[in-house]
Specification:
Layout (H helix, E strand, L loop, with lengths): L2 E4 L4 E5 L6 H8 L9 E3 L2 E8 L2 E8 L5 E6 L9 H14 L7 H7 L5 H7 L11 H11 L4 H15 L1 E5 L2 E5 L3 H5 L3 H5 L5 H15 L5 H6 L3 H9 L6 H10 L12 H11 L7 H8 L6 H10 L3
Antiparallel strand pairs: 1-2, 2-6, 3-4, 4-5, 5-6, 7-8
Helix pairs in contact: 5-9, 5-12, 11-12, 13-15
The protein binds a DNA duplex through helix 5, helix 6, helix 9, helix 12 and helix 13.
DNA sequence: TGCCAGGTAAACA
DNA sequence: TGTTTACATGGC
Protein backbone atom coordinates (compact mmCIF):
# COMPACT_ATOMS: atom_id res chain seq x y z
CA UNK A 1 0.00 0.00 0.00
CA UNK A 2 1.37 3.40 -0.99
CA UNK A 3 0.02 6.51 0.68
CA UNK A 4 1.34 9.92 1.61
CA UNK A 5 0.12 13.16 3.07
CA UNK A 6 -0.02 16.06 0.64
CA UNK A 7 0.53 19.22 2.66
CA UNK A 8 -0.30 21.54 -0.18
CA UNK A 9 -3.65 19.91 -1.01
CA UNK A 10 -4.27 19.05 2.67
CA UNK A 11 -5.29 15.50 1.86
CA UNK A 12 -4.13 11.92 1.87
CA UNK A 13 -2.97 10.50 -1.45
CA UNK A 14 -3.33 6.79 -2.17
CA UNK A 15 -1.81 5.50 -5.38
CA UNK A 16 -4.21 3.57 -7.61
CA UNK A 17 -3.44 0.32 -9.39
CA UNK A 18 -4.23 -0.37 -13.02
CA UNK A 19 -6.83 -1.04 -14.18
CA UNK A 20 -9.08 1.05 -11.98
CA UNK A 21 -12.29 2.84 -12.93
CA UNK A 22 -13.47 5.34 -10.35
CA UNK A 23 -16.59 5.84 -12.43
CA UNK A 24 -17.65 2.18 -12.35
CA UNK A 25 -16.98 1.92 -8.64
CA UNK A 26 -18.95 5.07 -8.04
CA UNK A 27 -21.84 3.71 -10.09
CA UNK A 28 -21.91 0.65 -7.89
CA UNK A 29 -21.88 2.77 -4.73
CA UNK A 30 -24.70 4.90 -6.12
CA UNK A 31 -27.04 1.99 -6.74
CA UNK A 32 -29.31 2.73 -3.77
CA UNK A 33 -30.62 6.14 -2.82
CA UNK A 34 -31.38 4.67 0.59
CA UNK A 35 -27.77 3.87 1.51
CA UNK A 36 -27.04 5.21 5.00
CA UNK A 37 -23.36 4.34 5.55
CA UNK A 38 -21.88 6.68 2.96
CA UNK A 39 -22.99 9.57 0.84
CA UNK A 40 -22.12 10.08 -2.81
CA UNK A 41 -22.14 13.71 -3.89
CA UNK A 42 -21.14 14.13 -7.51
CA UNK A 43 -17.57 12.75 -7.51
CA UNK A 44 -17.06 12.77 -3.76
CA UNK A 45 -17.81 9.88 -1.44
CA UNK A 46 -18.35 10.90 2.18
CA UNK A 47 -18.02 8.29 4.87
CA UNK A 48 -17.83 8.26 8.63
CA UNK A 49 -15.20 5.87 9.98
CA UNK A 50 -14.77 4.67 13.55
CA UNK A 51 -11.06 4.58 14.20
CA UNK A 52 -10.18 3.57 17.75
CA UNK A 53 -13.19 5.25 19.35
CA UNK A 54 -12.87 8.32 17.19
CA UNK A 55 -15.37 9.40 14.52
CA UNK A 56 -13.49 10.37 11.40
CA UNK A 57 -15.37 11.86 8.48
CA UNK A 58 -13.58 11.40 5.18
CA UNK A 59 -14.28 12.51 1.61
CA UNK A 60 -12.85 10.33 -1.14
CA UNK A 61 -12.26 11.63 -4.64
CA UNK A 62 -10.27 10.62 -7.66
CA UNK A 63 -9.78 13.71 -9.76
CA UNK A 64 -6.95 12.14 -11.73
CA UNK A 65 -6.82 8.48 -12.58
CA UNK A 66 -3.50 7.72 -10.91
CA UNK A 67 -4.41 8.49 -7.32
CA UNK A 68 -7.19 8.66 -4.80
CA UNK A 69 -7.50 11.81 -2.71
CA UNK A 70 -8.89 11.52 0.78
CA UNK A 71 -9.78 14.60 2.78
CA UNK A 72 -10.09 14.17 6.52
CA UNK A 73 -12.83 16.60 7.21
CA UNK A 74 -13.46 16.85 10.93
CA UNK A 75 -9.94 16.52 12.33
CA UNK A 76 -7.78 19.63 12.33
CA UNK A 77 -4.35 18.13 12.88
CA UNK A 78 -4.77 14.90 10.94
CA UNK A 79 -1.39 15.44 9.30
CA UNK A 80 0.18 15.14 12.76
CA UNK A 81 -1.39 11.73 13.41
CA UNK A 82 0.40 9.06 11.40
CA UNK A 83 -1.59 6.17 12.93
CA UNK A 84 -4.83 7.84 11.94
CA UNK A 85 -3.59 8.45 8.40
CA UNK A 86 -2.51 4.86 8.07
CA UNK A 87 -5.84 3.56 9.37
CA UNK A 88 -7.77 5.75 6.92
CA UNK A 89 -5.58 4.72 3.99
CA UNK A 90 -5.90 1.06 4.94
CA UNK A 91 -9.66 1.32 5.13
CA UNK A 92 -9.93 2.83 1.66
CA UNK A 93 -7.39 0.33 0.35
CA UNK A 94 -9.53 -2.56 1.56
CA UNK A 95 -12.82 -0.94 0.63
CA UNK A 96 -11.82 -0.59 -3.03
CA UNK A 97 -9.74 -3.79 -3.10
CA UNK A 98 -6.76 -1.81 -4.35
CA UNK A 99 -4.29 -4.59 -3.65
CA UNK A 100 -5.84 -6.94 -6.20
CA UNK A 101 -4.21 -7.58 -9.55
CA UNK A 102 -7.18 -7.89 -11.90
CA UNK A 103 -5.26 -9.03 -14.95
CA UNK A 104 -5.39 -12.76 -14.15
CA UNK A 105 -9.18 -12.43 -13.87
CA UNK A 106 -9.49 -10.60 -17.17
CA UNK A 107 -7.12 -13.05 -18.88
CA UNK A 108 -9.23 -15.92 -17.59
CA UNK A 109 -12.66 -14.69 -18.69
CA UNK A 110 -12.19 -12.25 -21.55
CA UNK A 111 -12.97 -14.95 -24.11
CA UNK A 112 -15.83 -16.38 -22.07
CA UNK A 113 -19.00 -15.74 -24.08
CA UNK A 114 -20.93 -14.85 -20.92
CA UNK A 115 -18.41 -12.89 -18.88
CA UNK A 116 -16.28 -11.46 -21.67
CA UNK A 117 -18.71 -8.69 -22.61
CA UNK A 118 -19.44 -7.99 -18.93
CA UNK A 119 -15.81 -7.48 -17.92
CA UNK A 120 -15.29 -5.34 -20.98
CA UNK A 121 -18.27 -3.17 -20.12
CA UNK A 122 -17.22 -2.68 -16.49
CA UNK A 123 -13.46 -2.63 -17.06
CA UNK A 124 -11.69 -1.34 -13.95
CA UNK A 125 -14.55 -2.13 -11.56
CA UNK A 126 -13.31 -3.47 -8.24
CA UNK A 127 -15.14 -5.68 -5.80
CA UNK A 128 -16.25 -3.04 -3.32
CA UNK A 129 -15.83 -4.47 0.13
CA UNK A 130 -17.28 -4.23 3.60
CA UNK A 131 -14.08 -4.16 5.65
CA UNK A 132 -15.81 -4.43 9.03
CA UNK A 133 -16.71 -8.03 9.88
CA UNK A 134 -19.77 -7.25 11.99
CA UNK A 135 -21.16 -4.92 9.35
CA UNK A 136 -20.55 -7.50 6.61
CA UNK A 137 -22.23 -10.31 8.56
CA UNK A 138 -25.12 -8.05 9.51
CA UNK A 139 -25.68 -6.93 5.94
CA UNK A 140 -25.63 -10.54 4.83
CA UNK A 141 -28.17 -11.59 7.45
CA UNK A 142 -30.38 -8.59 6.74
CA UNK A 143 -30.36 -9.39 3.03
CA UNK A 144 -31.47 -12.99 3.43
CA UNK A 145 -34.69 -13.72 1.55
CA UNK A 146 -35.90 -10.14 1.18
CA UNK A 147 -35.63 -7.70 -1.67
CA UNK A 148 -32.74 -5.25 -1.66
CA UNK A 149 -34.93 -2.20 -1.33
CA UNK A 150 -36.38 -3.48 1.91
CA UNK A 151 -32.91 -4.62 3.04
CA UNK A 152 -31.65 -1.05 2.72
CA UNK A 153 -34.63 0.17 4.73
CA UNK A 154 -33.94 -2.32 7.50
CA UNK A 155 -30.26 -1.41 7.57
CA UNK A 156 -31.11 2.27 7.83
CA UNK A 157 -33.48 1.64 10.73
CA UNK A 158 -30.82 -0.41 12.53
CA UNK A 159 -28.10 2.18 11.95
CA UNK A 160 -30.24 5.16 12.91
CA UNK A 161 -31.48 3.41 16.04
CA UNK A 162 -28.17 2.06 17.34
CA UNK A 163 -25.29 3.52 15.33
CA UNK A 164 -23.19 6.57 16.02
CA UNK A 165 -23.45 9.74 14.03
CA UNK A 166 -21.72 12.99 13.27
CA UNK A 167 -23.36 16.11 11.94
CA UNK A 168 -21.31 18.12 9.48
CA UNK A 169 -22.59 21.12 7.58
CA UNK A 170 -26.20 20.18 8.09
CA UNK A 171 -25.89 16.54 7.05
CA UNK A 172 -25.84 13.59 9.43
CA UNK A 173 -23.27 10.87 8.78
CA UNK A 174 -23.68 7.44 10.35
CA UNK A 175 -21.40 4.60 11.22
CA UNK A 176 -22.54 1.05 11.81
CA UNK A 177 -23.57 0.04 15.36
CA UNK A 178 -20.92 -1.72 17.41
CA UNK A 179 -21.38 -5.43 18.13
CA UNK A 180 -21.22 -4.54 21.84
CA UNK A 181 -24.33 -2.39 21.44
CA UNK A 182 -26.30 -4.95 19.44
CA UNK A 183 -25.25 -7.86 21.70
CA UNK A 184 -27.05 -6.19 24.60
CA UNK A 185 -30.38 -5.82 22.79
CA UNK A 186 -33.38 -8.05 23.23
CA UNK A 187 -34.93 -9.38 20.00
CA UNK A 188 -37.93 -7.12 20.62
CA UNK A 189 -35.78 -4.08 19.92
CA UNK A 190 -35.15 -5.40 16.40
CA UNK A 191 -38.57 -6.87 15.62
CA UNK A 192 -39.87 -3.39 16.40
CA UNK A 193 -37.88 -2.29 13.34
CA UNK A 194 -39.59 -5.03 11.23
CA UNK A 195 -36.77 -7.53 11.53
CA UNK A 196 -38.16 -11.05 11.66
CA UNK A 197 -37.83 -12.83 14.97
CA UNK A 198 -35.19 -15.15 13.54
CA UNK A 199 -33.09 -12.41 12.03
CA UNK A 200 -33.21 -10.53 15.30
CA UNK A 201 -31.82 -13.61 17.06
CA UNK A 202 -29.18 -14.22 14.41
CA UNK A 203 -27.95 -10.64 14.52
CA UNK A 204 -27.75 -10.50 18.30
CA UNK A 205 -26.01 -13.88 18.39
CA UNK A 206 -23.38 -12.80 15.89
CA UNK A 207 -22.91 -9.51 17.72
CA UNK A 208 -22.28 -11.42 20.96
CA UNK A 209 -19.68 -13.68 19.35
CA UNK A 210 -17.81 -10.67 18.00
CA UNK A 211 -18.17 -8.62 21.17
CA UNK A 212 -16.74 -11.50 23.20
CA UNK A 213 -13.79 -11.71 20.84
CA UNK A 214 -14.58 -15.26 19.73
CA UNK A 215 -15.20 -14.24 16.15
CA UNK A 216 -12.70 -11.96 14.43
CA UNK A 217 -11.37 -11.40 10.95
CA UNK A 218 -7.89 -12.36 12.07
CA UNK A 219 -9.04 -15.68 13.50
CA UNK A 220 -10.93 -16.55 10.36
CA UNK A 221 -8.08 -15.57 8.07
CA UNK A 222 -5.68 -17.60 10.20
CA UNK A 223 -7.64 -20.72 9.21
CA UNK A 224 -5.94 -20.39 5.86
CA UNK A 225 -8.27 -22.02 3.36
CA UNK A 226 -11.61 -20.83 2.08
CA UNK A 227 -13.12 -24.21 2.98
CA UNK A 228 -12.01 -23.89 6.59
CA UNK A 229 -13.31 -20.34 6.87
CA UNK A 230 -16.67 -21.26 5.34
CA UNK A 231 -16.99 -24.25 7.67
CA UNK A 232 -16.27 -22.06 10.68
CA UNK A 233 -18.80 -19.41 9.61
CA UNK A 234 -21.55 -21.89 8.83
CA UNK A 235 -21.35 -23.26 12.37
CA UNK A 236 -22.84 -19.98 13.52
CA UNK A 237 -26.63 -19.91 13.78
CA UNK A 238 -28.09 -17.79 11.01
CA UNK A 239 -25.12 -18.13 8.71
CA UNK A 240 -25.60 -20.60 5.88
CA UNK A 241 -23.49 -21.17 2.77
CA UNK A 242 -24.78 -18.05 1.05
CA UNK A 243 -24.02 -15.66 3.92
CA UNK A 244 -20.66 -17.31 4.60
CA UNK A 245 -19.57 -16.89 1.00
CA UNK A 246 -20.99 -13.39 0.82
CA UNK A 247 -18.82 -12.41 3.78
CA UNK A 248 -15.80 -14.26 2.40
CA UNK A 249 -16.27 -12.29 -0.77
CA UNK A 250 -16.86 -8.79 0.60
CA UNK A 251 -15.01 -8.80 3.91
CA UNK A 252 -12.41 -11.56 4.00
CA UNK A 253 -11.59 -10.81 0.40
CA UNK A 254 -11.34 -14.29 -1.01
CA UNK A 255 -11.70 -13.97 -4.81
CA UNK A 256 -12.80 -17.62 -4.98
CA UNK A 257 -15.75 -17.15 -2.61
CA UNK A 258 -18.98 -17.98 -4.37
CA UNK A 259 -22.53 -17.35 -3.12
CA UNK A 260 -24.05 -19.99 -5.38
CA UNK A 261 -27.59 -19.59 -4.04
CA UNK A 262 -27.64 -15.86 -4.72
CA UNK A 263 -30.83 -14.78 -6.46
CA UNK A 264 -29.12 -11.70 -7.89
CA UNK A 265 -26.53 -13.95 -9.51
CA UNK A 266 -29.28 -16.19 -10.88
CA UNK A 267 -31.16 -13.28 -12.38
CA UNK A 268 -27.98 -11.79 -13.83
CA UNK A 269 -27.14 -15.09 -15.52
CA UNK A 270 -30.69 -15.43 -16.79
CA UNK A 271 -30.29 -11.96 -18.28
CA UNK A 272 -26.90 -12.40 -19.96
CA UNK A 273 -27.84 -15.88 -21.20
CA UNK A 274 -31.14 -14.67 -22.60
CA UNK A 275 -33.12 -17.33 -20.75
CA UNK A 276 -36.80 -17.34 -19.86
CA UNK A 277 -36.10 -18.83 -16.45
CA UNK A 278 -33.29 -18.71 -13.94
CA UNK A 279 -30.59 -21.31 -14.60
CA UNK A 280 -30.40 -24.35 -12.30
CA UNK A 281 -27.78 -24.65 -9.61
CA UNK A 282 -26.14 -27.46 -11.60
CA UNK A 283 -25.91 -25.24 -14.66
CA UNK A 284 -24.39 -22.43 -12.59
CA UNK A 285 -21.88 -24.77 -11.01
CA UNK A 286 -20.78 -25.88 -14.47
CA UNK A 287 -20.48 -22.31 -15.71
CA UNK A 288 -18.55 -21.24 -12.66
CA UNK A 289 -15.97 -23.97 -13.18
CA UNK A 290 -14.55 -21.73 -15.89
CA UNK A 291 -14.10 -18.87 -13.42
CA UNK A 292 -12.22 -20.99 -10.89
CA UNK A 293 -10.36 -18.83 -8.43
CA UNK A 294 -12.31 -15.71 -9.45
CA UNK A 295 -15.91 -16.64 -8.64
CA UNK A 296 -16.32 -13.65 -6.33
CA UNK A 297 -15.27 -11.18 -8.98
CA UNK A 298 -17.40 -12.94 -11.59
CA UNK A 299 -20.41 -12.66 -9.29
CA UNK A 300 -19.77 -9.02 -8.52
CA UNK A 301 -19.44 -8.09 -12.19
CA UNK A 302 -22.59 -10.05 -13.03
CA UNK A 303 -24.56 -8.18 -10.37
CA UNK A 304 -23.74 -4.99 -12.22
CA UNK A 305 -25.73 -5.98 -15.31
CA UNK A 306 -28.93 -5.86 -13.25
CA UNK A 307 -28.67 -2.52 -11.49
C1' DT B 1 -52.64 -8.82 -5.94
C1' DG B 2 -50.12 -12.71 -5.89
C1' DC B 3 -45.41 -13.80 -6.55
C1' DC B 4 -40.91 -12.77 -5.44
C1' DA B 5 -37.03 -11.33 -2.62
C1' DG B 6 -28.79 -10.90 -2.61
C1' DG B 7 -31.73 -17.87 2.62
C1' DT B 8 -31.63 -20.64 6.88
C1' DA B 9 -33.05 -23.80 10.44
C1' DA B 10 -35.62 -27.42 11.61
C1' DA B 11 -38.52 -31.08 10.61
C1' DC B 12 -39.09 -34.99 7.95
C1' DA B 13 -38.37 -39.17 4.94
C1' DT C 1 -27.96 -37.84 3.23
C1' DG C 2 -31.41 -35.51 0.70
C1' DT C 3 -35.95 -33.01 0.52
C1' DT C 4 -39.71 -30.06 2.33
C1' DT C 5 -41.57 -26.43 5.09
C1' DA C 6 -42.00 -22.37 8.24
C1' DC C 7 -40.34 -18.13 8.75
C1' DA C 8 -42.44 -13.02 8.01
C1' DT C 9 -42.78 -8.88 5.55
C1' DG C 10 -42.30 -5.35 2.04
C1' DG C 11 -41.83 -4.31 -3.00
C1' DC C 12 -43.66 -4.20 -7.40
Amino acid sequence: MHFQWDDHADCLIVQLPEPFSYEHNLDYLSRSTNECLFHVDNLDIYKLLRIVDKDVLIAVNSADSAAMRIRIINIEDAAQQPELLRAVAEYVWEWFDLGRDLMPFYDLVQRDPLLGPVVQRFHGLRLMGIPDLFEALSWGIIGQQINLTFAYTLKRRLVEAFGTSLVWEGRTYWSFPSPETIALLSPDALTALQFTGKKAEYLIGVAALIAEGQLTKERLLALGSIQAMEKELVRIRGIGPWTANYVLMRCLRDPAAFPLADVGLHNALKHVMGLDDKPSLDTITQLAAKWAGWEAYATFYLWRVLY
